[in-house]
Amino acid sequence: MTLRLHWSPDSANLVVRIALETLALPFEGVRINRAAGDHKRPEYLALNPQGLIPVLQDGDLVLFETGAILWHVAERAGRLGPDGPLMDDPAARAAALRWVFYLSNTVHADLRVAFYADRYLDDAAAVPSLRRGIARRLRGHGALMEAQLAKTGGLIGPSVTVADIYLAVCLRWAQLYPAGAPLLAGLAEWPRLHALGARIEGLAGARRAFAAEMIPADRALTAPQPPNLPRDQITGVV
Predict the structure, then answer these.
(1) Does the residue 143 lie in any domain?
(2) Angle at CA 21, nearest 5°, toward 237 and 154?
(3) What pLDDT, in 10s, does the model give residues 161-218?
(4) Within a domain: residue 69?
(5) Helix (H, G, I), strand (E, B) or coil at 46
(6) Sign of the torsion formed by the C-alpha atoms of 2, 15, 152 and 113
(7) Percent of the chain predicted with pLDDT > 90
(8) What Cα–Cα distance (Å) separates residue 87 from each residue in 64, 98, 175, 219, 220?
C-alpha cells in the first residue's frame, strides 16, 4: 500500500520526508497550499482535525503529529536509520523512543511557540521577551544534545537514525526562523551537532527531500536558507 504524505514546504513534514527517503520507503506526496488555506478545508480536517501539517496515510491508517508519524515510518521500515539499528533491538528502540519524545514534546514544541508567539500571548509587546526566553531554553537543549553526541556519536549511537534527522531539522528551523530574528545565530558552539547535520546533508535521501521542498541543498541543515518560494508559502515565516 502506497504511503501518502501531505506536506507543505519546510513544514514538519521535512523530518518525515527525509526519513522516508533515507529509509527507502516509497511514498506519494500531496502538497498542501497553506496560502490558499488547504489545511483548513473539510477534507483535510477529516484527516487532522487540528489542521496541522503533516499527515501520513498508510492504507486505512491516518497519522498526524510528527513524532508519531516518524515512529510509524521506522516501524514500517523495520529499522531506526538507513544503516540500522533494527527496531527489534530493545535497547536501541528504547533510546530512540525517549529522544523522539524529547524532540517532539520539548524542542519542537518550544520552536512552535517561538514561531507563532502571537497565538500564545494577548500582548504583542511581550513577543520579543518570550522569544528571548525560548532562545535561552534552546541553547540549553543544544548543550544537552551536544553532550549526548560526545558519548554516543549520534543521539542513540554512531549511525544516523530518525531521531538524529528530527534533531537536525529542528536546528535548521531555529537558524532560520522567525524570519529576520532567528532563534540561533548558528551551530558554532556545538561542533558535534554541526557535524551531525553535515552527515545528514550528505545523504542522498536527504538531498532528494531538500529538492522536493524547494530548499537550497547547500548546507541545508548547518547554514540553511529558506525555500525558494513566496513568503506566505513558507511555514516558519511569521
Answers:
(1) yes
(2) 80
(3) 999 999 999 999 999 999 889 999 999 999 999 999 999 999 999 999 999 999 999 9
(4) no
(5) coil
(6) negative
(7) 92
(8) 21, 14, 31, 30, 28
Q: What is the pTM of this model?
A: 0.96
At residue 1, the pLDDT reads 62
Tally Cβ neighbours within 10 Å of residue 3.
Answer: 21
Query: What are the angstrom distances between the C-alpha of 168 and each of 87, 119, 127, 146, 238?
Result: 21, 26, 26, 12, 21
Please state, rounded to an integer, the average pLDDT across all residues of the chain: 95
In a domain, 85, yes or no: no
- In the Cβ-directed half-sphere of 180, how many Cα atoms lie within 13 Å? 4
pLDDT at 237: 46
Kindly compute the dihedral angle of the four CA atoms of residues 212, 80, 175, 126, in this order, to the nearest 10 degrees: 110
CATH number at residue 101: 1.20.1050.10
pLDDT of residue 44: 97
Domains of the chain: total: 1
Let me know if residue 94 belongs to a domain: yes
Give the range of the structural domain holding residue 195, as residue numbers without chain letter: 90-202
